[in-house]
Amino acid sequence: MGDLRKCSKCGQPSGDYASVLFASVFAPKDSFMICGRCAADDHAAGLVSIEEADHFIEETTMNLEKLEELIKLCPETTPVPEELEPFAMTPLKVYRALQAYLAAFKSRRMELMTEMGSEQRLQYEIRKAVDAENYELAAELKKQLPGDAH
Fold first, then answer.
1. Span 136-143, mean pLDDT?
2. 120, 100, 110, 130: which is closest to 53 by C-alpha?
3. What is the DSSP letter of 6?
4. Cα dihedral sign, 146-47-40-59
């Protein structure tokens, strides 16, 4: 069993980010911890489409906003014993972890966008504009499609 105060992937202490401890009563020697940053990067790496990335970006943004409201209502938290600090899920640590997830999702979205061809990107942006009922934008984007009759 490694040092459960440090991330098993990057070797850094969890610090200001919420971390996840993986432990089993059947194999306690195999326990490990992953910091919020590495967990975010792992999750984002598994995204395979722009739609999926947009979904997680929207959901994470909404969760951040809700958590901001909670932190404003209850700005003071109960002190955490030093021994539990690496594993404590305080509102502020969860907030910072969500920020790491949002950044990772946005970065992955950019990677996915650059992998797409320009026509695919335009088609996607047109679908988003139509879904948002922004028909003016959809029409402008449609004019940019190759072979589109203006």
1. 92
2. 110
3. B
4. positive
